[in-house]
């Protein structure tokens, strides 16, 4: 895919990333998207002898607009070859939702994407524009919610996640080479899961008495999550199994997992290992690895929060075993990593303690989205459902009997 960028493109503040001074418009989708793509690849435009563009709209997310934009293949070629050309000459356009900068640091998102690219864990970031990003397309298909429970897919996700946590530094300023990195940091980064969560709580509307009381209640809970058990808290902050914080994806739902084509085409050998790729890094931040795992397990229920789909203890154990093998392998650089039952048990226990935090995290997020988003999604109701998960966890943590469907499913062997 050749690149002859338009003269309107300037250098971004981040790592010389091209910056296109144009915007994407939902109301004028194809025209605005075409203008952005042709600014980066003017030779694709019919006026320059190109074959024009086609668009595929992805609708798996609930905050951004995602378009696959591809250069039309030449006429008269066979379908397999046309598909290969489409994939080779495709760009993903992701436009931010309205006012999402309240929730997401877009400068940090770009830095995270560039860092991941250095470690071959993200597609090449091609350019920024006024309200989004352009990056290379990853051939494959989006994982469904149901497929998260498929053993081959689950193992592939665990293996990829172990690689992420094993090789990525927690700073978005990368070391001179991937080989000199370390997953653990000697000092806590400026931005972490906890600083992001605090920023979100501060952003919760509090104009009404009810809003003010809720904000104060959530702030109190946040402080308990940070405090140690000896100080009357829950002791989650810093519960990292001795490995330090890892660079988390922090939004590993099914729509952000791409199942890659398998070698062997449509009928690969039965023992062929499934491979996956993760996309969308806007929430990526250093975190305790147990949060990342608990958060991913909560996504088995999908946006509908169908708790019957959540992984049982045995399914979580299989996932954690594969994750730890990959994590230790990539962290040490060895050719093989032996994982003990004790290591699995320890991380299982950490995930148990973190199982309520995803509900708190996304509940706070949804309270803000309910006031800013134009997307047709009931964020207010979603916030209540997710926060209820946290309150149930808190009751169980404090030793009270809890019989919610989620807690019941979570305890199943």
Automatic annotation (TrEMBL):
Top-level EC class as recorded in UniProt: transferase
A GO biological-process term: phosphatidylethanolamine biosynthetic process
Q: Which CDD domains match?
A: ETNK_euk
Recorded GO CC terms = cytoplasm
Which pathway does the protein contribute to? Phospholipid metabolism; phosphatidylethanolamine biosynthesis; phosphatidylethanolamine from ethanolamine: step 1/3
| Region feature (Disordered) | 166-187
- What EC identifiers does the entry list? 2.7.1.82
Which branch of life, at top level?
Eukaryota
One of its Pfam families is: Choline_kinase
Homology family: Belongs to the choline/ethanolamine kinase family.
The protein, known as: ethanolamine kinase
Annotated source species: Tuber aestivum
């Amino acid at each position: 895919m050749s690149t002859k960028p338009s003269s309107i493109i300037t250098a971004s503040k981040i790592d010389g990333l091209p910056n296109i001074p144009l915007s994407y418009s939902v109301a004028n989708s194809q025209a605005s998207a075409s203008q952005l793509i042709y600014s980066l690849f003017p030779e694709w435009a019919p006026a320059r002898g190109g074959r024009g563009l086609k668009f595929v709209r992805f609708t798996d997310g609930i905050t951004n607009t995602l378009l696959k934009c591809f250069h039309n293949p030449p006429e008269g070629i066979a379908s397999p070859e046309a598909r290969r050309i489409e994939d080779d000459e495709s760009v993903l356009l992701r436009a931010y939702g309205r006012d999402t900068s309240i929730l997401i640091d877009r400068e940090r998102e770009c830095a995270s994407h560039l860092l991941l690219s250095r470690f071959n864990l993200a597609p090449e970031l091609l350019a920024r524009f006024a309200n989004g990003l352009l990056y290379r397309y990853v051939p494959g298909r989006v994982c469904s919610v149901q497929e998260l429970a498929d053993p081959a897919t689950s193992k592939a996700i665990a293996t990829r996640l172990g690689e992420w946590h094993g090789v990525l530094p927690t700073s978005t300023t990368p070391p001179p080479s991937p080989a000199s990195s370390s997953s653990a940091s000697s000092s806590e980064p400026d931005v972490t899961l906890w600083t992001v969560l605090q920023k979100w709580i501060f952003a919760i509307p509090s104009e009404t008495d009810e809003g003010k009381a809720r904000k104060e209640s959530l702030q109190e809970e946040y402080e308990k999550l940070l405090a140690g058990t000896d100080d009357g808290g829950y002791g989650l902050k810093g519960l990292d199994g001795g490995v330090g914080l890892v660079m988390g994806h922090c939004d590993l739902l099914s729509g952000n997992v791409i199942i890659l084509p398998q070698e062997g085409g449509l009928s690969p050998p039965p023992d062929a290992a499934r491979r996956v790729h993760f996309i969308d890094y806007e929430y990526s931040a250093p975190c305790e690895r147990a949060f990342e795992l608990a958060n991913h397990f909560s996504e088995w229920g999908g946006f509908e929060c169908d708790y019957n789909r959540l992984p049982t203890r045995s399914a979580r154990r299989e996932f954690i075993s594969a994750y730890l093998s990959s994590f230790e392998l990539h962290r040490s650089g060895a050719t093989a990593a032996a994982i003990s039952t004790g290591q699995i048990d320890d991380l299982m226990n950490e995930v148990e303690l973190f199982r309520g935090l995803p509900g708190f995290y996304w509940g706070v997020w949804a309270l803000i989205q309910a006031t800013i988003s134009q997307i047709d999604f009931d964020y207010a109701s979603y916030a209540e459902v997710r926060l209820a998960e946290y309150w149930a966890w808190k009751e169980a943590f404090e030793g009270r009997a809890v019989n919610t469907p989620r807690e019941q499913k979570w305890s199943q062997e």
